[in-house]
Amino acid sequence: MITAPGLPAATRRSSDLSKHSAEVFAEAENHPVTVTRRDGEALVLMSQREAVGRSRLLNFAAQLITVTLDDNGSLAARMSKAFPWMLALSPADRETCAQDLVDAARASFSTDQPHLAIAELTSWKETATAIAAGLGVADLEWFDDETVERP
């Protein structure tokens, strides 16, 4: 079994799954668990959150690969084709966003932590959505030394 450095390599026998299912399921909520079987290939038990995160990271990786195969324009311009929402950002923010997304993807792949890239992608996309909706245009009034009660 291949695991990323620093992650627990949890392996259980299939009999553990039937005899101590609550314990194995609780462990699988924290990290993937490999279930070995005598009569077949080992299976991996993981939470749906983990599976969705890995799927989203692979989808993001496919988009980044497409961007890198295109050699027309800057990284930000190429990424704006794959992620059209980036066009709502200023040119400087597009450059920053592109580099932040690549850096977060590298961190996710090297640590096997999908949430790093997905959180960065979501954060930038939400920022672009807010800008496109007109937020950030109005002057805001900040209250420095006032405590406001919860409604």
Topology, please?
Blueprint: E1 10-13, H1 14-19, H2 21-30, E2 33-36, E3 43-45, H3 48-69, H4 75-82, H5 91-111, H6 114-132
Parallel strand pairs: 1-2
Antiparallel strand pairs: 2-3
**Strand order, biggest sheet?**
1-2-3
Give the integer mean of the pLDDT values.
87
Which residues sit in consecutive blocks of at least 5 with pLDDT less than 50?
1-7
> What's the gyration radius in Å?
22 Å
Name the overall outline. flat
- Structural class based on helices, strands and sheet pairing: mainly alpha
Strand residues, percent: 5-15%
Number of strands: 3
Largest sheet, strands/sense/barrel: 3 strands, mixed
End-to-end C-alpha gap? 52 Å
The string of secondary-structure elements, in order, is EHHEEHHHH
Number of helical stretches of at least 4 residues: 6
Measured as a percent range, the helix fraction is 55-70%
Description:
By secondary structure, this protein is mostly helical. 57% of the residues lie in helices and 7% in strands. It has a 3-stranded mixed sheet. Strand 2 (33-36) and strand 3 (43-45) form a beta hairpin. Helix 3 crosses helix 6, helix 4 (75-82) packs across helix 5 (91-111) and helix 5 runs antiparallel to helix 6. The chain is flat, with a radius of gyration of 22 Å. The relative contact order is 0.09. Residues 1-7 have low confidence and may be disordered.
